[in-house]
Amino acid sequence: MLALGCPVGVGPDPDPPRTTDDGGVTDPPRKASCGDATTTFADATPLPADATLIALVRRDADDLAPSLGHLKQHIGGGSSGLAVPTGFALSQWTWEVPLVLGALDGIGVHSTTLAAVQASTLRVWVVPLGCPFDDLLATLGTDFEIKDTGGAAIATPRDRTRFAHDIVVRPDAIGLCPPGAARRVLAAWDRTPPPNAPPLLRDGAFGLADATIRIAVRETGLLGQDAPDSRTGVHLVRIDGAGVDATLAQ
Fold first, then answer.
1. pTM of the shown model
2. CA 87 to CA 80: how far, in whole Å?
3. Domain ranges of the chain
């Protein structure tokens, strides 16, 4: 949707090859393939406009593992300026991000960028849609129950032991979200910020110079130990294998 309040799991097991009565193998099962290493977000438009946290992870980066380690160390230092729930969630990424990437690989969804989004109280993992909408739904239909919501779709796994998330599919993006939360996620996704709202957070994340991990978060809650007194502004964080670059933009 962070330890995004989302369960993690692997994708459905591939269907076994079909066999004839004499033991011969017939045509192999179809394997999902949606997107590739060039699939990325062209801009911030596919992500929720009302988000309070946007993080962009370059999933194919050679330094992803050390970057996640730097993020955890930054949070553990006690002066990140992030709210306690956000800091705790981000500190779990060293194990959670690899599991989310494994879940996406398991359903044949590939991209360069993985986004973590919080809209309202819902946290979702999002990737760009890199194949025709209907083609992905047709492939997921083998292992998921598909519900058309009009302009989007919800895919619910038939077997929770094989895939732990619900999936929302939009014309430009795919989201992994907690079980039973898909309709609320879609509603939050389409929510329009009020006229007096501050600048869109998603624009702040995409405005950061390229890095393995880019985070923009607007905090309001209990801040961590040794955090600055100010509770306003947007925290902007860039992380790569060399370390962390963090600022507070008022």
1. 0.81
2. 8
3. 51-249
